[in-house]
Amino acid sequence: MGWFITLNPSQTEMMLRILSHVPEKHFKMVRYFGFLSNRLRGSLLPLIYKQLGQEVVAAKTFGFVAMMKAFLKVDPFKCILCGARMVFTGFIAGLKVGRLVSAIENIVLQRSI
Q: If you write DSSP's letter for every residue of 68-111 in order, what string do you get?
């Protein structure tokens, strides 16, 4: 039958079963062969899906704005002062904490006016 018949294998037997799945040193594993190989997958998989009558569904990609809207219900490009849509033009890397705090204080002061 199989190894799954015994319900309580000893520790040694369990280790032998686990180690039987570890390949020997310098053993070349073939993971993807034929239509799943890296070289052929892009050209052959659509043909296989067509022959099987399956529909190819493209993976959805989410950007930062879509994730913020979905999870936090907040549009990160909506201006907190006037409500207009802001346009991302770039960022400044390496701002010090003091400059960030002063920028936030300026926004708070402008918002309270």
A: HHHHH---TTB-TTT-PBP------TT--HHHHHHHHHHHHHHH
